[in-house]
Amino acid sequence: MSRVLIRVLWLMLISGLSLQGCTPPKPVRLGTPIEGYSHTSAAINWFSVNGGGGPNISPYSGGGKQNCCASLPVKWHPGLTVVVEWEKDPNPYDSVNWPDPPFSDAWRKAAKEHETHYTRHRAVVPVAPYERLGAIDVHFLPCNQVAVSAVAMLPGQPGYPFNFPQKMQEPATCPES
């Protein structure tokens, strides 16, 4: 073989090897939006998933409003969990009984008293299996229970991992956690 041919082959080999480094690797984890659903009469003032903030949620409502983001693996695996933290207002409509006018000293005092009834919670929650990673859906249930999904579909669609009614009542006593 001629020297020129050997050089050309050598350059082609080096070029081919260097181009392999130009293909970006597929991600192992992705940031995914967070949304929540309150299935109880309590309001969720704020919540987070692995430190990423979710929107506030009125009683018996949710979905449609997303905040960004929490990181999850692209592929689900057994034992996958997230940490959910939240603040709950058990009586979100009490403000209708506060003194008038709004933002007066008496009104502020009532608001401050109302805030003393807020409760804070933290739970390590398993993530339901998913084929394709979608938004993180956090379902707030009676007795401070939480369920988490990250499937690429909406609640109520066939194949969604949970089928909770929108309105659930707190039992007279909650089971011990």
Keywords for this entry:
single chain; 177 residues; alpha+beta; four-stranded mixed beta sheet; 2 helices; 8 strands
Count of domain modules:
1
Assign an overall shape: elongated
- What is the N-to-C order of secondary-structure elements (H for helix, E for strand)? HEEEEEHEEE
Radius of gyration, in Å, reads 25 Å
Q: State the share of residues found in helices, binned by percent.
A: 10-25%
Structural class: alpha+beta
Task: Work out the number of β strands.
Answer: 8
Termini Cα gap: 77 Å
Strand composition percent: 25-35%
What's the average pLDDT? 87
> What about the largest sheet?
4 strands, mixed
Number of helices: 2
* Order of adjacent strands in the largest pleated sheet: 4-1-7-8
Low-confidence stretches: none
